[in-house]
Design a protein that fits this description.
It contains eleven helices and no strands. The radius of gyration is 22 Å and the shape is globular. The protein has two domains: about 140 residues, no CATH class; about 160 residues, no CATH class. The chain is mostly helical. The longest helix has about 40 residues.
Length: about 300
Amino acid sequence: MNSINPFVQQSVDWLEWLHWLLQSNPALGWVLVLAIGLISGSFIGCLVYRLPRILLEEWKWQAEALLKDDTLETEQTPGRRRELTLWRPPSHCPACAHPVGIVGLIPLLGYALCHGRCRHCKERISLRYPVLELTCVALAAWCYAWFGLSWLGLVVWLFSLAALALAWMDAESTLLPDQLLVPLLWLGLVVNYFALLAPFASSFWGCMGAYLFFALVAWLARLLLEREALGWGDVKLFAALAAWLGWEVLPMLLLIATLSAILYMLLRQRLAGISLRNPMPFGPFLLGAGWLVMQALLLSGFPL
């Protein structure tokens, strides 16, 4: 007679109890979703602000080490490397470096109570934080409403958070960090190993094919135009999206992203007078198209 591992049995019992609790108390589920959305939004805001600065600081000090040039030292700590991580220093005002305090750490409410300004120097705090927090709440609510408490809902939510962080970073700093792209790519392959979103063969070969094809496009564009027309971050992003969605949807995804980018460029030229030749990050359009395609196919019932 086959015996069930006690740990597995306890996990099943715990999940069944959680399902029963949320089904019998729908309001509790939405309260948890709201809390998780706010907490994740606060983290994404920190990630979007700090990760590009951590990378730029790291590259600057690597260049200094290679060039042995003291002129690249920071003004705050001359002669020493300033330590900036996702956890240190604690949350503070970018203008005066004063800690935001307990009130300022409360998602959304802290921003409202401080009237969007630092309580110490009165400098305006970026709208980035409340916008990201609200967006993460909306994403958590969307996933819970349509996919419920399931593995599918969890992976769609994780993809949504990563897409939001990468899109915002690319729009602000034109960076698509490998620290997020590579885990996103591997997570897509792992997810589809269990065929949650697409067949594993479609995911695996789509990832490899997308990377090789767009790497060739990037190399040829640089050779012919003598400038970078497609960044290597975009190439890795194509591969990551293929790992999540499979190769079959890539043409549709690329069409949506390209048309939306062209429309944005035309509107930007019309409203702000910005030339069409002015560089523009393509990552946000790719990620937005990937998210829309994923939701459309899932909700329509078609297998990815």
